[in-house]
Amino acid sequence: MGDKLNILLAMVSYMLIVIFIGVYYAKRSQENSKNYFLGGRSLGPWVAAMSAEASDMSGWLLMGLPGVAYWCGLADAAWTAIGLAIGTYVNWLLVSKRLRAYSVVSGDSITVPDFLSNRFKEKKKLILGISAIFILIFFTVYAASCFVTCGKLFAGLFQLPYHYMMIAGAIFVLLYTILGGFLAESVSDFMQSIVMIVALVGVLGFGVVHAGGLNAVLENLKNIPGFLSLTSIASPNTVDGVQQAVNGTPLFNEAGKYGFLTILSTMSWGLGYFGVPQVLLRFMAIRKTHELKTSRRIATAWVLISLTAAVCIGLMGRAIFPATASLATQSSAENVFAQLSQLLFHPLLAGVVMAGILAATISSSDSYLLIAASAVSKNLFEGIFKKNATDKQVMTVSRVVLLLITLIGVGIAWNEESVIFEVVSFAWAGFGATFGPIILFSLFWKRTTRWGAIAGMVAGGSMVFVWKLLLKPLGGVFGIYELLPAFLFSALFIVAISLLTEKPSAEIQEEFEKARTYCEAD
User: What would you measure as the largest C-alpha separation in the chain, in angstroms?
Assistant: First the structure.
């Protein structure tokens, strides 16, 4: 009981620091909606970079990815990580500078739907409405994945009911998001990104020592069919979803094939970066365009270290806990990071490491809730239904929407057997396919038309559902990750419809050139 109390004490202390940050920035964030939703474009390069990655990675980095590596070995986790690392670098390299400039030139846009609508000079705000709806749908799913993380973490640590813990986590995130807004979220995300990377590297380093060194870890894993291969995948022998074991040795079936198409599909996780609003907003919010180069280097280094550590922790966890009952299902395997922390560290230090999971979860869920609320309050309510809305009315609507999204997210997270990795993968595909192609075409192809943008967004977002629910169950070539076909489908529609419709107006083309000039000059 004393150990649990020490862990709880460390975690509560961390939470108090997060709350203090929210209170500190509350007054400034409440001044107007621009400060609340975009921080007044005042982020420095370190905060922009590390808050972007922390809000993006979420509890998925410390629970979902190690869980995949623990359950089925290197291939799935490693190719996902490689795709994400490449996507991170390319996104900061190509998109960040142009989007920062274009969002200022095009009506000083403060949300992604704002930018897209302003980019095509909409009078009837169709793009604005479609963008807001897709953001609301996919961010509600995303927020649910964070609530699942909270529930699993506290239920596993303190043997308390999952549902109570999940609801408690959701309430805390809701209150914090209402209080602090974007600036508090970004500053706390910066702090949390430090906690996350220290926790990952610390668990990995002490874990390898505990296991007897790297050679001992590899020796323990090499006999599991396909576990350490990049071209095959381990297949746990399960009965009713529970892995079987004999005399403490886990049973595995023959390794499955992991061919080129599967590798390409898994690496397509990197395409999602071009469309995730929580990262795109950091590009828009940085104070100076030239600082994005520094941010790119920081973000890329953070991602490479963190993803590598997360994958290795899952592999190492299998060597240390080869057949533990508490990790014997695909869902429970996502607790491997938490269990390693408790094994390796004094309870107080373990509590700090656990705060890394909590940090990742909070840093993401507050981003998701805030962006979804802005999509409704700024883009639907103010942009379409009540164009003369005051800032106070917009802020009130945003808080009501935050509450509704939280309630729906809790409903989605109610199933305690939910696999965080799978929930996140669906929402990630949704954003990548809906917004990724149109963001790229909007920034780099002058010929893109409003109708091309609309067609591409609807085609990409819809195809995610069609592929996931109707085609993927057929298996074979249809078994690939839905992001890849949906992304290509969206791009095809953007090009085809843009070429079939009238060229953009002279005003739009002039603004395109102005954004490019602004980007080069700033």
Answer: 75
Tell me which amino acid residue 95 is: V
Overall pTM surpassing 0.85 (yes/no): yes
Asked if residue 96 lies in contact with residue 280, where contact means CB atoms within 8 angstroms, the answer is no
DSSP 8-class letter at 248:
T
pLDDT of residue 35: 46
How many Å separate Cα 320 from the centre of its chain?
29
Q: What is the mean pLDDT of residues 314-330?
A: 93
Burial of 42 (0-12, 13-18, 19+ CB in 10 A): middle
Token pair listed for 98: 């142009």
Q: How sure is the predictor about 184, in pLDDT bands with cuts at 50, 70 and 90?
A: low
| pLDDT at site 180 | 54
Nearest CA to 316 out of 214, 430, 392 is that of 214
CA distances for 351 relative to 14, 154, 307, angstroms: 9, 11, 22
How confident is the model at residue 251, as a pLDDT?
A: 93
Return the number of other C-beta atoms located less than 10 Å from residue 316's C-beta. 27
List, as one string, the DSSP characters of 122-157: -SS-HHHHHHHHHHHHHHHHHHHHHHHHHHHHHHHH
Strand pairing class (249-250; 252-257)? unpaired
Hey, is 361 helix, strand or coil?
helix
Homologous superfamily in CATH for domain 2-521: Sodium/glucose cotransporter (1.20.1730.10)
Q: Angle at Cα 366 formed by Cα 443 and Cα 21, nearest 5°?
A: 110
Q: Where are the domains of the chain?
A: 2-521
pLDDT at 307 over 60: yes
- Rounded Cα distance between 73 and 388, Å, is 55
The secondary element (H helix, E strand) that includes residue 348 is: helix 347-374
CB 464 within 8 Å of CB 426: yes
User: How buried is 471 (Cβ within 10 angstroms: 0-12 exposed, 13-18 middle, 19+ buried)?
Assistant: middle
Residues 132/398, Cβ–Cβ less than 8 Å: no
Which runs of E-coded beta strand occur in 173-268? 232-236, 238-239, 242-243, 245-246, 249-250, 252-257
Taking phi over 0 as left and psi of -120 to 50 as alpha, with beta for the rest, 303 belongs to alpha
Give the separation between CA 290 and CA 293, rounded to whole angstroms.
6
215 vs 141: CA distance, rounded Å: 41
Query: How many angstroms separate the CA atoms of 271 and 490, rounded?
Result: 12
Give the Cα separation of 394 and 34 in Å (integer).
11
Which tokens belong to 368? 């998701």
Q: Give per-residue pLDDT as tens, 449-482.
A: 999 999 999 999 999 999 999 999 998 889 999 9
Nearest to 97 by CA among 284, 303, 301, 273: 284
Q: What is the pLDDT of residues 17-74, one digit of tens each?
A: 766 766 666 555 555 444 444 444 556 787 778 877 877 776 788 888 999 999 999 9
Which pLDDT does position 398 carry in this prediction? 79
Q: Are 369 and 139 in contact (CB under 8 A)?
A: yes
Dig out the tokens for 87 from the structure.
């996507």
